[in-house]
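CHAIN AND CONFORMATION:
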Amino acid sequence: MAKTLRTSGDYTIKAGDGWNSGSGTRTIKLDARTVRIPGDLTVDGTQTTLNSTTLTVEDKFIEVNRNNSTAGTEDSGIFFNQGSSNHALFYYDAGNGEFQLGTSTNNSSATSITNITLGQLKVATTPTDNNHAASKSYVDNAISVGAFSFQILGDDSTGITVNDNELIQIKGDNNISSVVTESDTVTLSLSQTLTNIESISSASSNANLVLASNGTGDVVINDTLTFSGAASTPSASTVTKIYNKTAGGGGTGLFFINSNISSGTEGELISKKKATALAIALG
């Protein structure tokens, strides 16, 4: 028959030494088909073991690591017993701020996860939202662009079309060598000796073109040096400028100007014939 035990205060059933800070050894056994506790159940021990075959929880959310009071510093998650194999594990890695899934030699008594072999996570073949995880087959299909081509144009607007499986060769021609190395690096090198050069010009209008040797070396011209006609007499400066104009009294048409010579007045280089004639005339 049903029986109710009612007390006006707290009621304690104690076997042996009870809990006694963990030193008690006795057990209280409730032997019934069903044990129902209408109120809240609080377990203050260090371990709760459930030997039931099926666990059914009505709560919408389950909290683990309940008494954690430090912000973002403790790992927590769920272990899956795999017998003699390493435990399977799904947990939040607080140090890296991310969820991880895999297997570990750690067990559920660990205070942090010190090792994990990341495992596979199977998801739907085709995601239906931009934030869904994508399967490998979906990604492979998504980046398969099929046939493609693009065009490369030169400075003169001439171009070529590059299609599937065609190679692009970067050639240095006579004075520039090209080397392609990993990863995605193209190096262009200018040869020390320039050949087959027909024209060198400065980059912008009225800019100087400077030929300079290294150290005490000279700028050497091994062939004819031609001076085209100067549009006007250049301004004098502290360097000597040589230019070509209509021949004057010197008979050469090759003039020079330097602000430190004749107060910057231009002079004409005199030819051998004119010099001889002047020597005879002047006795």
